[in-house]
Each structure stands twice: as C-alpha cells, then as structure tokens.
Design a protein that fits this description.
The complex is a heterodimer of chains A (about 325) and B (about 475).
Chain A: H1 33-41, H2 48-58, H3 65-77, E1 79-82, H4 90-101, E2 115-118, H5 123-130, E3 136-140, H6 151-163, E4 168-172, H7 175-179, H8 183-197, E5 201-205, H9 208-211, H10 214-226, E6 231-233, H11 245-262, E7 267-271, H12 277-290, E8 301-305, H13 308-321
Parallel strand pairs in A: 1-2, 1-8, 2-3, 3-4, 4-5, 5-6, 6-7, 7-8
Helix pairs in contact in A: 2-11, 3-12, 3-13, 4-5, 6-8, 10-11, 11-12
Chain B: E1 29-30, E2 32-34, E3 37-39, E4 46-51, E5 56-62, H1 66-82, H2 89-105, H3 107-118, H4 122-143, E6 161-165, H5 171-185, E7 188-192, H6 199-210, E8 218-220, H7 225-233, E9 238-242, H8 245-255, E10 261-265, E11 271-274, H9 280-292, E12 304-308, H10 309-325, H11 344-359, E13 363-366, E14 381-384, H12 391-394, E15 401-407, H13 410-418, E16 425-429, H14 433-442, E17 447-450, E18 469-470, H15 477-480
Parallel strand pairs in B: 1-5, 6-7, 6-9, 7-8, 9-10, 11-12, 11-16, 12-15, 14-15, 16-17
Antiparallel strand pairs in B: 2-3, 4-5, 10-18, 13-14
The chains are: A alpha/beta (about 325), B alpha/beta (about 475).
Chain lengths: ~325, ~475
C-alpha cells in the first residue's frame, strides 16, 4: 500500500484579515478537574435567543455569481463523504471512494471532496481505493455513535482504525460523563484517544443534540480543544437533532476565541442533516463572519454529509450552464 | 500523484446582490391624498425627494400649504361626522385587516421604495419595517371591536380628528404606528410624513384606496415644517408627534390653552448597560443592533454603551472586530448592513457632533470600510474614553456613533444611565435575573430591554419619559392616546 501523507494543517495563516493570537498566547495546561471546571464555568454564557437571532440574520446573506460558484466548489472540497450504515459493504465503500475522487466525471474540474468517512472495519478498503488521490480516510471510532464502552475498548477501536490507515479519527464525547459533571473523566479520555491517534487527526464529536444547551456546547467545545482535539464536530448524525446553524455559530465562536487566547487553530465539522447547497452556503457565511476567512479551508472546516454532494454538483452545473440538470445526471452514491 | 484542485476562496467577498429598483414602481409625481383622492396642492407647489444613497432625484411631491391642510382636516372632520363615528368596531376591524393584508401583498414594492427614499438597507426594510407595519394593523384590527374590554371604561369614545406628524427614520412603520390605533379607536386622521421621506406614506394611501376605506378617513399631506405647523394650528382634536425634542417643545407651546390632546415621542440617549457576567457574543450583537441599526437613526438607539470595567477590554475588542465587518453601502444590496444617512443636513449634524467628540478628548475609532463617492455616508464610529460631560454623551447624534463609558458597580451604572435629560430606552445585559430586575426598576426610561436591544412588537407599548415625551404607542396602552378617557 502506498502511503499518502496527509496534507498539513494550516497553522500559520498569512491572510492579512486573519486573526492574530494575543501576545504570549499558549494552551493552558490542565492539571486538575477543579481547574478545568472553573475554566469552563468562567466562559461567557450564551444567550439562546440572541445566538439564534444572529444565525438567522446571517442566513439572509445572498451569495451571487462568482461568490456562489467559488463557494460551491469550496463546500465540495470540504465534504467528508460519509457512509455509516450497518449494511455498508466493501463494494459500496469502493463506489463512494470513486465518487470522492471524481464527484462529477462529466465535469473534470470539479474538486475532489476532503475525505471519505467510514466505520473502522472498512478503513482498509477506503485506503486502498483512495491511494494517490489526496482524499483522506476518516474513521469513526470509540464505540460510535453512543460511546458506551469501556476506555480500553474505545482505545482499541481507535488503534484499529489508525493501523488500518485512517488519516482522521472521529471520536464521540462521553456525553453521560459530561452531563453528570465528571469533566476530568471526559478530558482524560480525549487526551488518551489523542495519544492513540498518533499522527492521525482527531475530531471530537460533541453530539450537540444530547448536550441540548448552547452553554454546554460552548463548554464541551473548550474541553475538547484543551484536551487536544484538531477538530470539534457537531453530531454523529444518529440522534434526532444534528447540526444547526446556531450551534455551529457557537462552536465557531469557541474556535475563534480559543485561537486568540492560545494561538492554536482548531477546525469545526458540521455533520448531519445538511442536505442542500443553500444550507451549506449558509454555514460558509457563518464561518466567514464568525471565525473568519482562515477557516474557509478544508483543513479547518468540514461538512459531514452524503446527499449534500449531489445537490452541490447539480447547483454547480446550474451555475455553469444556466439550466438545472436532471438528478439522474449525477450518481446516486 | 494527482493534483488536487486547490480551493479558490480565501475570503467570501460577496458579489453585489441588489434588489431591483424597478420594484418600487416610482412615478414622476405624487399628489396629496385628501378626501379619498390624489390632488395637486392648491397653489401647485411641489418639492423634490431624493435618494440619499446617490443624491439623484426620485420624484416630485406636492407641497401642502395652509389651504391644503385645511381641506384635509375638513375632509377628515366630514368623514368622522358622517361615516367613521357611526361604524361598528367590527367594520373598522375589517378595514384594518384588509390594509394589513394589502401591505403584505405589496411588501416588496414598499420595502424597495422605503430603501430608495430613506437610505436604509433593504434587509431592514424587508425584514423589519414592512412586516412590523403590517403587524401593527393586524394587532389593532383585533382591538377595534373589543374597546370596551381595553380597561378604559365600558364605552370608550374616540377623540375625533387626529393630526399625526411622523419622522423620516421609519416612514412606513411610523405611519402604521399612528394610523392603526387611531382608526381602531374610531378617529379619522390627517397624516403628515417627513419632508425627506414622503413616498411610502403615499403608497400606503393607495393601499387605503384599494382597501376601500371610506373617503376622508385618512388624509396625507406632504411638505416641510410649515405643513406640520399648519396642521398643528388647525382645528384637530388630537396631535400625535414623533420627532425631535426641539420641535416637540414648540408643538406643546402652540397647543397650550387649547383642548387638543397631545402625545409626543421624542429623542433619546439610550444606555446599553453591560455587566461582567453577560453573554458577551450576544452583547456585541446587541450593541451593534442598538446603535448601527438603521444607521443609528433611531430615537431609542443604544447610543451610550455603559460597560463594566472588568470586561471593558474584552467587549471592546470583540466590538471592534464586529464593527469592521459591517458592510456599508448600496441600500438595495441584500448584503448591506448599514445604508446611507438620510439627508445632507443630518450628515452635517453627525459630523459636527463627532468633531466635538474629538475636540473634547474622546478617542475615535472608525470602521475602515470603503464609502461610496456619491450620496450621504458616515462610517460606523465608536468613541472610547468618553466622559459624562462630553457632548457626544449628552446630545442625541442620531447617527452610527457610539459613546463608550465604563462603570464599576450597579449603582454607578444606574446613576450614569439616568444622568440624561431623556428617558426613552435602555438595555441591561446580565445572565443574573435578580440584577437585571434591580437595575430595570431604577432606570428612568419608558422601555428597558433585557439581553436584547431594539426589539419591537405591536403588542408591547413604546414611549418615553421626561424629554423623550409622553404617551404610549403599541399594545393596549396605545389605544389610550386615541380614546376620550
């Protein structure tokens, strides 16, 4: 198997509009649960009405012409093309990999997606079909989606995925422990998984639908970032409420503030329920006006989705030809 | 190894997304609306209304003189005596519902027209002004047949003919605030729109025709200050005025000794008070909504930011980043956040007061945004190191200019917030409910918002105390201004 080194994360941004860390910024060392608790409780609260109003206001931005074309291509390049079904087969994963490399064979300049996201047992298959493509392999792990397993089993799950060639590991936060206030336990687990990942990037799934409040989302975001997450991710896509625009807004505020106070840039992945180009572009607007242009990069923002790609492809064709193509012009998976 | 197409975007520089000006269906000339018909001024006088974003003329509008105002008041009196006072509440309700629906049907036209004539961004006229105007008619349509349950006695009577003078900052919305409760209570009206923004009120008059509102129940006389003065001098039963404190005082003097009722909604110098436990990201949005909404042309604007010293640096850092993001420019562009200043005179006033701010020693920060070459523009501006004695902390700028002061204790915040001759609106930001209530009880202001700012709803009464005026608009309280109680 040919080793493909993952593209480096962009840690230094030379864009003049990019955010600049405060002088002396560094990631605080967490030494005790009490310290972690006071740090998380010291974060400013989120006013739910205000956050939702802000997201709704940003959703009225109108992207036209060149901006729309560029945004559609950017959104495509940010997709983690995902299949997480019990019925997944090596054949289906192979087909998904082909789509990831060349989403629209009739339009050769269509950008490839960022990654293919599968269960650990299919990582090797995905790896084999993505060799040389630059498309990364992401694997869910740590007893996805519930996270209800012992630490040892979770770490084995991670080691298994990494050994099979995963470039990125999507772990689930232990919501049970978080909601019952056992923050140290949650923190330690993320640190342990971070170590088990080795060179692979770690995405921590907060499962915002189970955290429920924006205050929890903000604190969980900080906890994951302090513990070493490369990405914070909204959802597994397996519970009733997945990514929402206000939740993404709160998480983007968290990565922005974290970058300013520590100098470390953490990515955000919005996953679950994003199916249309219109929705995806709204997320990009929120990224642009919250975290800033540095995050308009697949290294720092991702969409976890499957059906979104086809809508992006159809809209992309519409932008070019002026007419809507029939849905059958793009492959179903 | 295949080359992967690089992403083409470093920042989302939004391409122009303009709403079509043609939707406003502008005409070359607009007449006065008297007795149900559009007519020229008796002496044929007209004036020009311009687009403040381009300085281009939009239309010529009739200038009502004393004779025209007298005719309008006579038409309103006739309509009151012969028709409107005899209608049942249910009938008035029917007309108000119709008007509300017609505003919704013609909402795009009204939004574009409002942005052209006033300079406000289409996002605001589309999402706030026009829907709220319709909402006011819907709300008071519901009251028209329930007046005996409004708490003003078993059979409250209307006042008669109301003369209503409205400002240029929310032309259509202020017309709705004035007309809806007056009509619901059974009065007839003579409405005088502001000189620089007469057009949407005249389209509203067209809508009244469409709704088959009986002739003369509402009359619209356009013109400058002399038209307003003539209306105040005429035999009306009620004057309702929204505008500057200066003019409000003149009107009050003129009406002294006359039986005419009066309500005034005047200026303000609202304080937005931010405590250290506030939700800071939403605070920043609230500050921005408080002072940059409608270019700061808002009587209840949160033009003074009082921020607790311990979080001042953090809040100002976030605020400055957010102010830099505000998109200033073409009001018809759907992505514009801050539009044009309404007139050359207003721009001059803003420049004068901001120059005073610098002269008196405050530190000025102005957004680096590019401004169009033609038209009236003023970049969003924040003054720090402001003292209570500075003119920019005491006088109403009525523009996108924020004065920042700090405090250490809740007592100090209240003392500073109340240290103004005005008393229209304040905001309190804290996650601690008991503190919010403690502060709100002590603020001398007609409106106190908690963890939000510049939110309006037809069910909620609005109005000031002290030099911000008296009388309430909106809600059950808004009926009182038009009932003989």
């Amino acid at each position: 198997m040919v080793e493909v080194s993952p593209a480096p994360l962009r840690l230094v941004v030379d864009d003049e509009r990019a955010l600049r860390p405060r002088p002396g910024a560094s990631v605080p060392v967490v030494e005790s649960e009490a310290q972690l608790r006071s740090l998380l409780r010291g974060l400013a609260g989120v006013d739910a009405v205000g956050a939702e109003a802000r997201a709704a206001k940003l959703a009225t931005r109108s992207l036209k012409r060149e901006t729309k074309r560029a945004a559609i291509d950017l959104a495509l390049s940010m997709v983690d093309l995902t299949t997480l079904e019990g019925a997944d087969t090596p054949g289906r994963v192979a087909s998904l990999c082909a789509k990831a490399r060349r989403p629209d064979p009739e339009e050769p300049d269509t950008p490839a997606v960022a990654a293919v996201c599968v269960y650990p047992d299919l990582v090797a298959t995905a790896r084999a079909h993505l060799v040389g493509s630059g498309v990364r392999v992401a694997s869910v792990a740590t007893a996805f989606p519930s996270g209800r397993a012992s630490r040892a089993v979770k770490l084995l799950d991670v080691a298994d995925a990494v050994a099979a060639g995963a470039d990125e590991v999507d772990m689930v936060l232990d919501r049970g422990a978080f909601l019952s206030g056992r923050l140290g336990e949650v923190f330690d687990e993320v640190v342990a998984v971070r170590e088990a990942c080795g060179p692979a990037h770690l995405k921590v799934i907060l499962e915002v639908g189970e955290l429920v409040t924006y205050d929890n989302v903000r604190r969980a975001s900080w906890l994951a970032m302090l513990a070493g997450a490369d990405f914070i991710k909204t959802s597994t896509g397996k519970v009733a409420v997945s990514a929402t625009l206000p939740t993404a807004l709160v998480m983007l505020e968290a990565v922005r503030d974290f970058a300013e106070s520590t100098g470390r840039l953490v990515g955000v992945k919005a996953a679950g329920g994003i199916r249309t180009t219109k929705e995806a572009l709204r997320y990009l607007v929120v990224v642009n006006e919250t975290a800033g242009s540095a995050w308009l990069d697949p290294a720092l923002f991702r969409f976890g989705a499957s059906s979104l790609v086809n809508d992006l492809l159809l809209q992309r064709r519409k932008q070019r030809s002026g007419a809507y193509a029939r849905p059958d012009r793009v492959s179903v998976d | 190894m295949e080359e992967r197409p690089a992403s083409t975007l470093s920042a989302l520089e939004y391409d122009p997304a303009p709403e079509s000006a043609g939707l406003a269906r502008l005409r070359e000339g607009y007449g006065l609306f008297i007795g149900g018909a559009f007519v020229e001024a008796a002496d044929g006088a007209t004036f020009e209304t311009i687009n403040p974003a381009t300085e281009e003329p939009l239309a010529r509008v009739a200038q009502a003189g004393e004779a025209d105002v007298a005719a309008a008041v006579a038409a309103a009196r006739r309509a009151y005596d012969k028709v409107w006072r005899k209608t049942t509440g249910a009938q008035r309700s029917k007309y108000l519902f119709r008007i509300a629906r017609l505003i919704q049907e013609r909402s795009r036209e009204l939004a574009v027209l409002e942005s052209l004539d006033n300079g406000k961004p289409i996002r605001e006229s589309r999402d706030i002004d026009v829907p709220l105007a319709a909402a006011h008619f819907f709300y008071y349509a519901g009251w028209a047949d329930k007046l005996e349950h409004a708490g003003f006695g078993p059979d409250p009577r209307p006042l008669g003919v109301a003369g209503q003078i409205i400002p240029w900052n929310f032309p259509l919305l202020m017309a709705a605030w004035k007309l809806a409760p007056a009509l619901a209570a059974g009065n007839t009206c003579v409405l005088k729109p502001a000189e620089t923004t007469p057009l949407s009120a005249l389209v509203l008059a067209e809508i009244l025709q469409q709704a088959e509102l009986p002739d003369g129940v509402v009359n619209v006389v356009t013109g400058d200050g002399s038209t307003g003065a003539a209306l105040v001098a005429s035999p009306v039963d009620k004057v309702a005025f929204t505008g500057s404190t200066e003019v409000g005082k003149v009107i009050q003097r003129r009406l002294a000794g006359r039986p005419t009722r009066l309500t005034l909604e005047l200026g303000g110098k609202g304080a937005n008070i931010v405590f250290d436990d506030a939700p800071l990201d939403e605070v920043v949005e609230g500050i921005v909504d408080g002072i940059f909404f409608n270019q700061g042309h808002v009587c209840c604007a949160g033009s003074r930011l009082l921020v607790q010293e311990s979080v001042a640096e953090d809040v100002l850092h976030r605020l400055r980043r957010r102010v830099d993001q505000l998109r200033v420019g073409d009001p018809l562009d759907k992505n514009t956040d801050v539009g044009a200043i309404n007139s050359a005179a207003q721009l001059e006033k803003i420049r004068e007061l901001t120059a005073w701010g610098e002269r008196e020693g405050a530190t000025r920060y102005t957004s680096p945004c590019a401004l169009p070459e033609r038209g009236y523009w003023f970049a969003p501006t924040v003054f720090t190191d402001v003292a209570q004695t500075h003119r920019i902390a005491r006088e109403e700028v009525f523009g996108p200019v924020l004065s920042v002061l700090t405090f250490r204790t809740p007592e100090e915040a209240v003392a500073k917030a109340n240290n103004t001759t005005y008393g229209l609106a304040c905001g309190v930001w804290s996650e601690k409910g008991s503190r919010t209530l403690w502060v709100a009880e002590r603020l001398r202001a007609g409106v106190v918002w908690a963890n939000t700012y510049n939110r309006f709803d037809p069910a909620s009464p609005f109005g000031g105390v002290r030099e911000s005026g008296f009388g309430r608009e909106g809600g059950r309280h808004g009926l009182e201004a038009y009932l003989d109680v």
